[in-house]
Amino acid sequence: MKIAILSDSHDHIPNFARAINRANSAGAELLIHCGDLISPFMLQYLFRFNGPIHLIYGNNAGDQHLISSRCATDFDRITHHGIEGS
Fold first, then answer.
1. Spelled out in words, what is the top-level CATH class assigned to the domain 3-85?
2. pTM (two decimals)
3. Residue 8 — left, alpha, or beta (φ > 0 → left; ψ -120 to 50 → alpha)?
């Protein structure tokens, strides 16, 4: 199984979109984002990944409430691991 591991995207859309595309083209079956997604609008790019996603907060979490509520309601492929991975 190929696993893509990303972190510290910090709302940098071009790099993040490129990383998601690269993970898909490499055949990754699971994506783990290890923190610092920051803004809820980044979820739309994260959702472009073709498989299941695990999202973990980092030390620079941004709008944690909105991200967690969007993960719970809008994106059934994202497992959200709470504040600082709890």
1. alpha beta
2. 0.83
3. left
Query: Does 27 score more than 90 pLDDT?
Result: yes
pLDDT tens, position by position, 28-84: 999 999 988 878 888 889 989 999 999 887 777 667 777 777 777 766 788 888 664
**Count of CB atoms situated within 10 Å of the CB of 48:** 12
- Long-range contacts of the stretch 31-34 (C-beta < 8 A, 24+): 31/3, 31/4, 31/5, 31/6, 32/3, 32/4, 32/5, 32/6, 32/56, 33/6, 33/7, 33/9, 34/5, 34/6, 34/7, 34/8, 34/58
Domain locations in the chain as residue ranges: 3-85
